[in-house]
Specification:
7 helices; 2 domains
């Protein structure tokens, strides 16, 4: 096989470079959606850092790396020849046989549900639920360890944001906890 031979369009469609292109386009769409959603986060009076700032910083960081991936994949697709690493056939995902893929899709669904219920149920409660389920999926089976980490980490993070950084994170049904902390 001549390494200087151009690939056919069909071969390019099955390459790793094309897979990177598709992923980068999907990520850009996701980042645009998350950015527009972050604009709906309520501003807090007297807060030095508004609640929308952290997600927006994360989105900007993701977007930079996504644009790099997009440019790299387009350049590789245009210059690709047989034998290039980017010309290798991309792996296919078998949703039925690969339990790791199913778990990843389930975590993506959980993250979407997290975003959906964040405002109504509040940061602490949805973070506890998400943490517990993800820890279970990755193999944590000790109930005490799972419960302590799933509960304490979101609580401590909320306290840091609320008390130290003066960022009001939605509490939802646990609003009485915020009122209790305010009395201390």
């Amino acid at each position: 096989m001549d390494k200087n031979t151009q690939l056919t369009n069909k071969e390019k469609l099955h390459s790793k470079a094309f897979a990177d292109l598709v992923i980068s386009l999907l990520l850009i769409a996701f980042e645009i959606w998350v950015w527009t959603e972050s604009l709906n986060i309520k501003t807090q009076k007297k807060a030095a850092v508004q609640p929308a700032v952290f997600p927006q910083i994360m989105i900007i960081g993701m977007a930079v790396f996504t644009l790099v991936l997009l440019v790299q994949s387009v350049v590789r697709l245009l210059r690709m020849k047989k034998g290039d690493a980017a010309a290798e056939k991309a792996a296919t995902i078998n949703f039925i046989k690969d339990k790791g893929v199913l778990a990843a899709l389930f975590v993506i669904l959980l993250c979407a549900l997290y975003a959906l219920f964040f405002k109504d149920l509040g940061y602490v409660l949805v973070s506890i639920l998400l943490s517990a389920v993800v820890m279970w999926l990755i193999g944590t089976r000790k109930p005490l360890q799972l419960a302590l980490i799933a509960v304490l980490v979101p609580l401590v993070m909320w306290l840091v944001f609320y008390k130290l950084l003066a960022v009001n994170v939605p509490m939802g049904v646990l609003q009485p906890l915020r009122d209790l902390v305010d009395m201390i």
